[in-house]
Structure formats: structure tokens, C-alpha cells
């Protein structure tokens, strides 16, 4: 008889070579297999598994051993207190991106009770746009993406939270699909150098959402150069960055918006995570 604890022990040993969170991965995959919560899996350690359950779990563990992300295997990811559908059409939302959301909420609240328009450029799964809409009830949002597949995932997540009337999805390149200027631009653009990223990320996550070019700055150059034409007089732009990119992105913002206030926000680990520019009305 194979119990939960036996299955978890074997899976953890199998995954240890490819994952720093092998036990957690195993618990999440078994919870998905059983249709249980992870807490119940941990609590019911002596519960026996049927042969069918063992086979389904073994198949998932084998895929994880090939570095396929757990989020894709179970089809969901939590972000900013929201559960979101994810698959290989979209980048998996990362916890560090929550810093961008927190700053964007604070920036939007500078408008008080006035309506505000926000554009999420590279909307992906819809994580950022949905989180902002849930916390900013007077905001109207646009979610732009070059990938039709990503927009399908975003649409499903937006519908789950009944936000279709407040988030409009647009297919196209960066700011070009927007119907006019917005008060706030937020983006987690592609900023990685592909030959330097984790093998599992490289093999399984969409390169369109990852590839920032030879120096990781290709998307920033185009997005920042276009931003002044798409911001309202008091608009602001917030961009997630790689930990090594702050100086370069700040320089690009100063070139495009020479009189704007520009700053850098670190994440909880003390790494540079978001670059922002605001009060752009002074350059109009």
C-alpha cells in the first residue's frame, strides 16, 4: 500500500536534483492530483493512494523532473492574493512583481476620488491589471500584449473576477494599440538575457515574454521613448527591472523625460526592482 507520506518521500527525493523546493513541489503536485488542498495532503499522511492516483502523480513528478514549472503542471498561480490561470502561453507571475503593483496602487491613489486610466503593457496572464482593478475601483484599465495566446489567458482570468467592463484587452506592440493617453503606464517588460536564465525557465516559459535582447534593454528603449506621447500631463510610468538594470533604465527615463522626477524602489530582498517617473506635466 502506497500512502501519501510514502509518495511524497519518493517524489521529494526524485525532485531534489532539479528543485530547491522539492518537498513543496511534491505536496502541490499531489494536492492537484487528489483535488485536495495542500494542507489536507500534509495532514492526511497515512491516506492510501489508488493505483490511478499513483500513476497520475508519477506523471506529474516526471514532468517536474524535466524542470517544467509547477504552476504549468497544476494550471494556476497565486499572485497578490488572487488565484490565476496560467499555462505555457504566459509568463508565470513572480512574487517580486507585487512590488510593482503596490507602487502602482500608491501612485494611483494620488488622484484621490478622480477616475484614472491605467495601461498594463505586456499584460500576460492579466496578473498586474487584475490586481490593480481589484484595489482601485475607480480605475479603467487597458491590457496590451503582442501574443494572442496570452490575451486568451488574460481574458479568462479577467472573466473569473468579473472585470470585463473595466479591463479592455488590446493586441499589439507596446503602447501603439492604446486609444489615447493614460494616467499611468505599468509594465513588467521582457528584460532577461536568454543565455543567462535558469534552464527550466528557458525551456518552458515563453521567450516573447522573457527576451530583452543582448543587454536586456531592448524593450525599455522603445517603451520609454514612446511614453511621453501616451501619458496625460500628470501621468507616471512604473517599470519592473532586473536587479542590474536600474542605472540604465533611469538614464533612459532622464533622456526621454528630462524634467520628470525619477526613482528606484527595491524589493524585500534589497534588490532594485522598479524604476518610476512621475509629475510629467512639468515637461508639457
Largest sheet: 7 strands, mixed
The CATH architecture of the largest domain comes to 3-Layer(aba) Sandwich
Mean pLDDT over all positions: 94
CATH superfamily of the largest domain: Vaccinia Virus protein VP39
Order of helices and strands: HHHHHEEHEHEHEEHHEHEE
Q: Examine the coordinates and then state which fold CATH places here, giving the name of the CATH topology of the largest domain.
A: Rossmann fold
Number of domains: 2
Oligomer: single chain
Distance between the termini: 73 Å
Spatial shape: elongated
Count of individual beta strands: 9
Structural class: alpha/beta
Catalogue the unreliable spans: none
Helix amount, in percent?
A: 25-40%
SS summary, helix count:
11
CATH class of the largest domain: Alpha Beta
As laid out across the biggest beta sheet, the strand order is: 5-4-3-6-7-9-8
Strand content: 15-25%
Q: Radius of gyration from the CA trace?
A: 21 Å
Describe the SSE topology.
Layout: H1 4-15, H2 22-34, H3 38-43, H4 51-65, H5 70-74, E1 76-79, E2 82-85, H6 98-108, E3 116-121, H7 127-135, E4 139-145, H8 148-160, E5 167-171, E6 182-187, H9 199-204, H10 218-226, E7 231-240, H11 246-256, E8 261-266, E9 272-278
Parallel strand pairs: 3-4, 3-6, 4-5, 6-7
Antiparallel strand pairs: 1-2, 7-9, 8-9
Helix pairs in contact: 1-2, 1-4, 2-4, 6-7, 10-11
Amino acid at each position: 500500500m502506497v500512502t501519501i507520506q510514502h509518495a511524497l518521500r519518493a517524489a521529494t527525493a526524485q525532485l531534489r536534483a532539479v528543485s530547491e523546493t522539492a518537498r513543496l513541489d511534491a505536496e502541490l503536485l499531489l494536492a492537484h492530483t487528489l483535488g485536495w488542498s495542500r494542507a489536507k495532503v500534509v495532514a492526511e499522511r497515512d491516506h492510501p493512494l489508488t493505483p490511478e492516483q499513483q500513476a497520475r502523480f508519477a506523471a506529474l513528478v516526471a514532468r517536474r523532473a524535466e524542470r517544467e514549472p509547477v504552476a504549468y503542471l497544476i494550471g494556476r498561480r497565486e499572485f497578490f492574493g488572487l488565484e490565476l490561470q496560467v499555462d505555457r502561453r504566459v509568463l508565470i507571475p513572480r512574487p517580486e512583481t507585487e512590488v510593482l503593483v503596490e507602487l502602482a496602487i500608491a501612485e494611483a491613489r494620488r488622484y484621490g476620488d478622480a477616475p484614472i486610466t491605467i495601461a498594463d503593457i505586456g499584460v500576460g496572464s492579466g496578473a498586474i491589471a487584475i490586481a490593480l482593478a481589484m484595489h482601485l475601483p475607480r480605475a479603467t484599465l487597458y491590457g496590451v500584449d503582442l501574443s494572442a495566446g496570452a490575451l486568451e489567458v488574460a481574458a479568462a482570468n479577467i472573466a473569473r473576477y468579473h472585470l470585463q467592463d473595466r479591463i479592455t484587452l488590446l493586441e499589439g506592440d507596446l503602447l501603439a494599440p492604446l486609444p489615447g493617453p493614460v494616467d499611468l503606464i505599468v509594465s513588467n517588460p521582457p528584460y532577461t538575457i536568454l543565455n543567462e536564465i535558469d534552464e527550466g525557465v528557458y525551456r518552458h516559459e515563453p521567450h516573447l515574454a522573457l527576451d530583452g535582447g543582448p543587454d536586456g534593454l531592448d524593450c525599455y528603449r522603445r517603451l520609454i521613448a514612446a511614453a511621453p506621447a501616451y501619458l496625460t500631463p500628470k501621468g507616471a510610468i512604473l517599470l519592473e527591472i532586473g536587479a542590474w538594470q536600474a542605472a540604465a533604465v533611469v538614464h533612459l527615463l532622464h533622456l526621454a523625460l528630462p524634467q520628470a522626477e525619477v526613482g528606484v524602489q527595491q524589493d524585500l530582498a534589497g534588490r532594485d526592482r522598479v524604476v518610476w517617473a512621475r509629475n510629467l506635466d512639468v515637461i508639457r
